[in-house]
Amino acid sequence: MKKLNDSFENRWKEQFEDAEATPSASVWDRIDANMAGSEVKRYKKKLFYYQITAAASILLALLFGSYILFNLNSDSNPGQLVQLPSAVEESESGQADAPDIFKEQTQNYVEGDKYQSGTAPRVASKENRTEIVPVSLTSNQDEIENELKVVRNYMNENAAITYHLESSFNVPYEKPGRKYYLQKKENPFETPYVMPFEEEDQNEDSQKLWAGVLVSSGVFDPNISYEGSPDIMADASQNTLGSVERINATSADLQSQSNSMASYKPEESSYRSEMSVSYGLNFGYKFSKKFVLFSGVGYQHNFGSTSVNTYIEPTESHAKYANHAIVIERASPESGLNSYNELNTEVQLNSTFEFITIPVNFGYYLVDRKFKWLMTAGVSTDIFVKNSIDDSQNLFDPIQYKLGDDSPYNPVYFNGKFGTMLNYTFLRNYQLSLEPSYRIGLSELTNNNAAFSSKPSSFMISAGIAYVFK
Amino acid sequence: MEDFKQLINDCIAEDRKAQKKLYDLFASKMMMICLRYSKSDLEAEDILQESFIKIFKNLKNLREYTNVAAWIKKIVINTALNYQRSKLYLYPMVNVEHLKMSYDENVALSNFHLEELLNMIQDLPLGCQVIFNLYAIEGYTHKEIAEQLKISEGTSKSQYSRAKSLLQLKLLESDKGNYEEAER
Lengths: 470, 184
Prior knowledge:
The complex is a heterodimer.
Chain A: H1 7-17, H2 25-75, H3 80-93, H4 107-111, H5 143-157, H6 159-167, E1 172-175, E2 178-183, E3 193-199, E4 209-221, E5 224-225, E6 232-235, H7 243-250, E7 255-256, E8 261-264, E9 272-286, E10 291-314, E11 321-322, H8 328-331, E12 338-368, E13 371-391, E14 399-402, E15 412-426, E16 430-441, E17 453-454, E18 457-469
Antiparallel strand pairs in A: 1-2, 2-3, 4-9, 4-18, 5-17, 6-8, 7-8, 9-10, 10-11, 10-12, 12-13, 13-14, 13-15, 15-16, 16-18
Chain B: H1 2-12, H2 16-36, H3 41-58, H4 68-90, H5 114-123, H6 126-137, H7 142-149, H8 153-173
Helix pairs in contact in B: 1-2, 2-3, 2-4, 3-4, 6-8, 7-8
């Protein structure tokens, strides 16, 4: 700094050192508006980030869901597309070899007409299905503009409030369900600049009804209990294949009966629950400030597996059936002739239960803001569609129980459900949801025909996107 | 001091009320600085607005609370220089011939209203005005001014002496251009 040796500079400096001049009020207003403007920019940036995250999560959930669905569906019939033509060829040529895995206990049976009869191991011709769940991920960038329009209209309708808004700043202005932060624009003749400040409790009119799609995955356990499964009869007197002797020798449960019928117990290895996937449409209706009713329709694929070491062959049909409690009703015709055989290794049986489910649930809002948190509970009616059982090596004839058949399953069973749900509303009209829930059977899935009983339970995590009608 | 610290922290947290309080504390003084560096109230207010937006945005980078006033003043002056810089480039400052005038330097400024003095400064050519402010009132050296404005030291000196001459002329031309006995 220079030395103040010149009184000219000093005198000017003295005059202006503590001098003040009051700026007009509009300066602060402009600063205020500018700062608010950068807040809007940040808000937009944040919003954009949330939108991207939300869209990505939904996409991931959908991809994961469909991957699981596709994978498990094709796993239950590995290689069937390749095997199908060869199986046909084999049956035509009549030279098909029995798969190694069959260690035939009855030599004369093998040399008999089994493979000459053109009924070489059949291959399930289950169709491959691709489900497409339509999901709208359209994002509306004009949300804020729409917000502004609504408030501007509101203000135009109410002169008193307009005056109040225009004459004061930093006054949070409340419209039912929403709080706005008001800023005046540079041009005093323009409508005050309004930005959404904070979303408050949505009132009933603003979010009453929504509808969307739902994808769930989790674990479905049919809770199969084998108690009381009946023995299967094999007619020893008419069995020319000699399998009964074998049974007598190996099975502890085996009982010889006076009329030379032998009975043996189906295997009861435990049922392992695997992935369960469901998808469907749902809607929610908020009928009071705190409660919401959910319903819809969904389709469930529930996968599971078990294993088997033995199989039976009804002599009339030349089919092969796993000797397991979950399939044995179909495998043993009432007065049929069965032969009983062992496998030299354990074979995995894959089972798929399919249901149409119609839930009716109630939700109670614990938090009802942009983020919502609900406790949910209700019942669902599950309509039995089918139960398919096959094995990964296509050794056995696939079994499929359907409605109306003489199936061991009831056409309908009921579930109780409770869970908790997180909802996030974005772009004003869209809502994401995530709901872990536990369902427990209220009635038996199986009927009196079954060699086992089942009262399923399941744990699922559902992800959904819905459009909110406002 | 603690209150002031709290105020600064609230401003950093973007508390609008705190920002308004800080603005109210400094706005009048800073407005006068802006006026010295501009030709009109409108220009000055533009500079003031821009300065405070910068202040609020950069407050979080401030390490010490002791010298906030000096820091704010520095930002206002820098903003003013940036604001005028484009115009300075339009009318590049060159060495001007020194007006050989030998007026008595001891003109009593206290006889003038502050507004009159301000008008005199504002009436100076822009280059002279800026350099006069920086040299006489802010107390920068010609070297510092030359670096700041990216001009030569000689230019700064000649612009200043022109400013000085023009101001002395204005003071004398004015009715109140009396000599003050006490200072003689």
